[in-house]
Each structure stands twice: as C-alpha cells, then as structure tokens.
Hints:
The protein is mainly beta. The protein contains one helix and eleven strands; from the N terminus they run αβββββββββββ. The protein has one helix spanning 3-21; strands at 42-44, 54-59, 68-73, 78-83, 88-94, 97-101, 107-109, 114-117, 123-127, 133-139, 146-147. The strands form two sheets. A six-stranded antiparallel β-sheet has the order 1-2-3-10-5-8, with no helix packed on it. Strands 7-6-9-4-11 form a five-stranded antiparallel β-sheet, with no helix packed on it. The longest helix is centred in the first third of the chain and has 19 residues, at 3-21. It is globular. The chain starts with a helix and ends in a 6-residue tail after the last strand.
Amino acid sequence: MNFSRQATAVAGALALTATSASAAPQGEAPLAIKAADPALKWGPCPAIFPAGCEIAVLHGDPAKPNADVFLRVKGGQRLPAHTHTSAERMVLVTGELRVKYQGAPAATLTPGMYAFGPAGLPHEADCRDGQPCTLFIAFEGPVDAAAFQGKLD
C-alpha cells in the first residue's frame, strides 16, 4: 500500500472512531483544568500519608471505579509504603518524584513522565526537595490506600 492510501485509510479510521465516540454519556461534560487552578477543591489524603498531602478529585466518584485525581505533596515529603486495590496510571505534573515498587528498581519521575502501578503491588514515593510534587492518577477501581509493613526489595 502506498503512503497516500495509508493516509486515507488512517483518516477514515479516525473519522469512524470520532463519529462513534462523539455521543458523550448523559450528564458528562468535557473538562480541562490546570493543577494550579484555584477552583480545585483540595482535601486531605488518606490518614496513612503525612500531613500536608492533598487530593483533588478531577472526574468521577472516588468511591467508584474510574476516578481521576491530582495528588500533591510538599517537596521533601515521603509517601510511606502502601498498596491500592486498583491499578493506577500516573503522570507527574510538577516536581521530581522517586517511586519504588516491590521487586522493581526505583524510578525517578520528572514532569510529563508516565508510570503504571499494578493493583495490590506495594510501593512508596519520595518527592525530592524543592517544589511540590503533583501527580495525576487515574484509578481503575475505587480510590483507596492501605499501609504496607513489609519490605519493597
């Protein structure tokens, strides 16, 4: 297939996808918001996290599947080892965050980096000194966090 035919086929597939996805579920509206928007309603993180940790719900109900949140911690703060019943998909928005999952090497996230955490896998995170770390997290299940007392290595 030549490039022109490929481009036409891709454009047709995109148009079909856009047409079939154009009907939004009732009651849902599009949303675009910055992490620094003063209209965001920040609340405390679960009690297992240090004081000053905050969460803002962006979309959905955190007690139900498929909620999206911003999580924010101060520079120098550590999120102790914990687990979630849901997988989490994350993108670091601000700061520098070192994340360590059990059995995996630590990774240092910088703004724009994506990370995936499987459901039930213990992990911890450290926001490097300096500016606060803001993390976008999309949960597949309800938003929760349970303390983990074991080792991550």
